[in-house]
Amino acid sequence: MKVTFTPPKKQDATSEQGIRVLYAPAKRMAFKVRWYLILILAFSPVIILLWYLGREWWLTQAPAIITTEPQLVVANGDGFIRNIYMTPGQPVSQGDVLMQFESPTLNVNIEARKARLKAIVLNKQLDELEILRILDGQISIAERGSREQEAIYKEYANYRQQKLVSSAEYASVLLSWTQSLIALQKAKVDKTQHILQVKEDHLTGPLASARHSLEQELTEMETMAMQQQPVAPTRGKVSDVLVQAGDWVFSGAPLALISKREDPLVLAYVQPKYLSSMETGHRAIVKLPSGERLAARVARPVELADKLPAQLAAPFEGEKATLKVALSLDDKLPLSLQVEGLPVTVLFD
């Protein structure tokens, strides 16, 4: 059996042993308010701390990186980096040569074709000069023979007027002089034909075809050597140099990063379910590794990212599709934190 004791005060709080006791309501209310204020002041730090720590549980968090969206300059072949002409932070214009690239294989092929071309031209020139020397000798002999035959002819012509030689002897001398003139003209024609043949060979002959083929190959290789020199793809500044002078690089190896943005962006990678809230101008907070927080806002329409950056992706998460959200900072980022690819955290409201 349960026994309950009820004190008289509980039944009538304003009565004490039959005497009516009146309490001042205002004082009781002030007493309560004072205790409430004391409780609020006592627990407010805990409440504020819980709110500060717990707000990140209901805010949308996303991994992000700080970037100037640089363009990557890669090697166009296998070879050595002989010299580097730029440093990080240096401004560059589109087409500026960033470093000296040298391909040993290509250089050997270029020198070999130069040597073959030089040999073809030199040997042909020597042969042509030798033939011209022989033809000039034939002309000299024919001219000398013609002069001698002319002198003999004139002497016999004088004798014939004096009737000292027969007509047969005179005719024989005349024939010899005529033949010497014909031989001289033939020697000159041979030289002229040889010169024409040389000119034709320079254009259409077998050696000309070989020379043209070598010249074309040499031009293509020299053009390739020029195209292999790393150049700035756009106007901007050098964000980073990824190689050193003397390094051997393979085709496609990264060489440098060129940024055309002055102020860095924050690229956040958000799950697709938050697409509706990622509108341009939407505000967010960027949490830096140092703990500092910076205000930011969505700078442009959301894009679909095929994979996370390497510095953000956990094992086997590289191919996970996410939304790429670009945010611009309201305040200028300190130079000490303008590190390409620096991981940060973004909190969206």
From TrEMBL:
Residues 215-258 form the Lipoyl-binding domain. The chain crosses the membrane at residues 35-54. The keyword Membrane applies. Pfam families: Biotin_lipoyl. Keywords: Membrane, Transmembrane, Transmembrane helix. This is HlyD family efflux transporter periplasmic adaptor subunit.
